[in-house]
Amino acid sequence: MTKDLINGTWRACTTAVGVDLENPATGEVTGPALGSSETGAEEALAAADALGSWDLPATDRAEVLDRIAAAVGAAAPEIVALESAATGVPIRQTTGLGMILAGAFALAAGQLRAGVLTSTATREDGREVLVERLPWGPAACLVPWNAPAPMAAHKVASALAAGCPVVLKPSEYAPYGTERLAAVIDTVLRDAGAPPALFQLLHGGAAVGSRIVSDPRIRAVSFTGGLGGGRAVAAACAYDIKPVQLELGGNNALIALPDADEGAVARAAADLLTTLNGQWCRALGRLIVPAGRAEAIAALVMARIDDLRTGDPADPATDYGPLIHSGHRAAVVKARDDLGGTLVASDLTGPGNTLAPALVIGADPARTTGEIFGPVAAVHTYQTVDEAVALANGTRYGLEGYVFGADEAAALAVARRVRAGEVKVNGSSIMSLHLFTPRPAWGISGYSVEGTAETLLFFTNPRVVGVENGFALHSRS
């Protein structure tokens, strides 16, 4: 049973959300998703508002964050196992993502020690002007179901480093790993003597999320999720003129240039289709290949995928697991079939909600512009590189891009023409190109920049203080 953490007290959730949870590995219903009551949400918001900010020097906050990092690192095996069981993502993959759990808090602590929140500028008269980045106030962090605990760690660590009281809400489909993470954070904060309202956890679906983000006592919102939810969050934040950070997914293109190694392209496409079982924002959406080579490359992709091992997500030998819920599986199948074109599917079978990854060749590009959020991608062909770039940019999303080519300089030149926040050349890992480069989004993929440094700064607002010794032009002595 899920539990809220409200002003230092753990409380069992009893309000039905309207969703039946499933074991992805079997498809069996495990019980109803439960969420916070209106009374509980109000108490959490009132407590965060009364606290206002974490009144502790940055260096002392860094010490607490380092202690959280150590405790979270010790609990990581338990957290990633809970994530795997809830989402269907193989334990090998959730374990890899688990390094973000402790790393997020350690990185935030390191930035505080480096003085990221304070800087100075020197005026022409030699006087120093102080720039302090101060917490906005109570912040809401909302995370989706595909990798909830790592995303929660990143957002919460950044908000706490900024000095913001945090209200965290995970997806109702996968609350357990995030709740275990919250318990570890809570224990360390208690031991450090932090105020009980500094970190709180609420559960539930869209209604609870709306209740949190639309409350004027919440002064900043960081949301990762779908486009519909993101639009609702943005509208709520616009009313109160509060800063909002949105990461809303993508329809990500992989361009195979004419000189690209087909084996490397197939490996990347297979990885992008099957990482997190295809349920991730930087997954493959469009595979763009030279004319006449679609069928051959698609066959190579499926051959690699057919070599993967399916099975219980908890088994370290499992490469590819089931989708999180039968309802989501049905939605992915419908989106796949609605593309038209010729279906090229792998031969993978597996337990529960497993869905064989597939490519669709020859679909109208106008019908492949949305995000499917599953192991399905379209294959388009081109005659010229200009046409390939146009196909890559032929969607309103702009999160990630991939370019493969033997001539690295030429591939980089094409990458710089792709309209996306990050474009990788000859690679397809789940990690960013650099730990301290931003993770931006273009178009409907998001708003406001994420990143190791950027998310911490998002939760702050600068105040500039200095001695001017000057007067308005038209004032009289």
UniProtKB/TrEMBL annotation:
Domain Aldehyde dehydrogenase: 19-465
UniProt keywords, alphabetically: Oxidoreductase
PROSITE patterns associated with the record: ALDEHYDE_DEHYDR_GLU
Pfam families the record matches: Aldedh (PF00171)
InterPro entries per record: Ald_DH/histidinol_DH, Ald_DH_C, Ald_DH_CS_GLU, Ald_DH_N, Aldehyde_DH_dom
Coiled coil: none
Catalytic residue positions: 247
Similarity comment text for this entry: Belongs to the aldehyde dehydrogenase family.
UniProt name for this protein: Aldehyde dehydrogenase
Origin species: Actinoplanes flavus
